């Protein structure tokens, strides 16, 4: 398999990034962040979640944010939907794709969505059918493919098992998530091999949190297998409220810098992206987690 010439990045910062912020972020700031990301050339943005506001209060303004978007043609706007209640609310806001999210580990499934893996699939099946009936694509997030905050190691067979269940209910696209950022390149490749037992290479993506600083290496390991779709987070925002201590996804800026350095197209303008990262970092009152953004900002000042 050769390294792809073009990569599609989904920026999950507005959702995966901001869901972990304890101080409320206003809907207008979230909307402005999405606008800045699309201005930077992002063609896929995960905007928000239609989950219980008791579980994740930060995403309670989901419909308000979706309604205020000035959409660009060619950009895919996706949202998380854990159940039919979430899907019904989401469909009113016209997402291009919805995301059901399962876990390769039982313990994380229980902590994150309050049900077993088998129960989650029972819940997702009507969500997938209703989304398809409405003409909306479905992505399946597979959490804890490289390790679980409660169970520790998660073997590739568990990933294959979840991928098979997702495929059976009609999820057309699966992403291998390293929720707590513990994976290393060979293990990431094993998790993709397990997923590829059920999905084609064009139907899989990588979603790597960078807690242990492995996410860029893991991205390269996946690229070497031909994977060309990745979730990243502007300024490296984020984490999951049900995976304590896990940091954000790998910074979009860092991945874009690496890809452009390898001659791989993304359609993203790195300088405009760095400005988007600065916008949200200023708003949150802390420096960006992107190493590339920090280096560019020093150079700009000089
Ligand atoms: P539950 O308590 O078992 O659900 O939660 P329930 O059906 O018993 O409902 C309880 C209450 O929630 C009811 O309200 C429902 O109406 C309401 P009440 O009668 O008590 O007033 N409710 C909802 N409200 C709004 N929207 C909904 C919804 N569903 C129920 N969709 C549930 C089950 C799945 C809802 C809950 O566990 C939940 O919301 N979990 C979401 C957790 C979450 O958002 N985690 C972070 C995102 S996943 C992630 O970050 C990982 C990822 O990035 C990949 C990776 O890195 O691993 C994707
Ligand atoms: Mg995540």
Reconstruct the topology from this structure.
Elements: E1 8-11, H1 13-17, H2 27-39, E2 44-49, H3 62-68, E3 76-80, H4 84-91, E4 97-103, H5 106-113, H6 117-133, E5 137-143, H7 156-168, E6 173-178, H8 185-195, E7 204-208, H9 215-224, E8 229-232, H10 252-261, H11 270-284, H12 291-301
Parallel strand pairs: 1-2, 1-8, 2-3, 3-4, 4-5, 5-6, 6-7, 7-8
The structure holds 3-hydroxy-3-methylglutaryl-coenzyme A and magnesium ion.
Magnesium ion (MG) binds at residues 16, 177, 179, 207, 209, 240.
- Ligand roster: 3-hydroxy-3-methylglutaryl-coenzyme A, magnesium ion
Class by SSE composition: alpha/beta
Instruction: Tally the beta strands.
Output: 8
Oligomer: single chain
In CATH, the architecture is: Alpha-Beta Barrel
Output the radius of gyration. 18 Å
Overall average pLDDT:
96
The CATH homology group name: Aldolase class I
Strand percent estimate? 5-15%
Count of individual helical segments: 12
Largest sheet: 8 strands, parallel, barrel
* H/E topology pattern: EHHEHEHEHHEHEHEHEHHH
């Amino acid at each position: 398999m050769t390294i792809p010439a073009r990569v599609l990045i989904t920026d999950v910062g507005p959702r995966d990034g901001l869901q972990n912020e304890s101080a409320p972020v206003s809907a207008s700031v979230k909307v402005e962040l999405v606008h800045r990301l699309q201005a930077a050339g992002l063609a896929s943005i995960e905007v928000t979640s239609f989950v219980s506001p008791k579980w994740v209060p930060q995403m309670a303004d989901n419909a308000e944010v979706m309604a205020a978007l000035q959409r660009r043609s060619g950009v895919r706007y996706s949202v998380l939907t854990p159940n039919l209640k979430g899907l019904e609310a989401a469909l009113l806001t016209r997402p291009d794709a919805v995301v059901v999210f399962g876990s390769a580990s039982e313990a994380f499934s229980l902590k994150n969505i309050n049900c077993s893996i088998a129960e989650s699939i029972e819940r997702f099946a009507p969500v997938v059918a209703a989304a398809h009936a409405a003409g909306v694509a479905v992505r399946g997030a597979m959490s804890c493919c490289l390790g679980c905050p409660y169970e520790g190691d998660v073997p590739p067979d568990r990933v294959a098992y979840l991928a098979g269940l997702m495929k059976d209910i009609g999820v057309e696209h699966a992403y291998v998530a390293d929720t707590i950022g513990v994976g290393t390149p060979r293990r990431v490749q094993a998790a993709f091999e397990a997923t590829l037992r059920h999905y084609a290479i064009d139907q899989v993506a990588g979603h790597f949190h960078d807690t242990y600083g492995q996410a860029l290496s893991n991205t390269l390991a996946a690229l070497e297998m031909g994977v060309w779709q990745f979730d990243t987070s502007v300024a490296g925002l984020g984490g999951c409220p049900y995976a304590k201590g896990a940091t954000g996804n790998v910074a979009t800026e860092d991945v874009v810098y690496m890809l452009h350095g390898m001659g791989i197209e993304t359609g993203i303008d790195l300088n405009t992206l760095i400005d988007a990262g600065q916008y949200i970092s200023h708003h949150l009152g802390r420096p960006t987690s992107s190493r590339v953004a920090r280096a560019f900002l020093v150079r700009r000042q000089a």
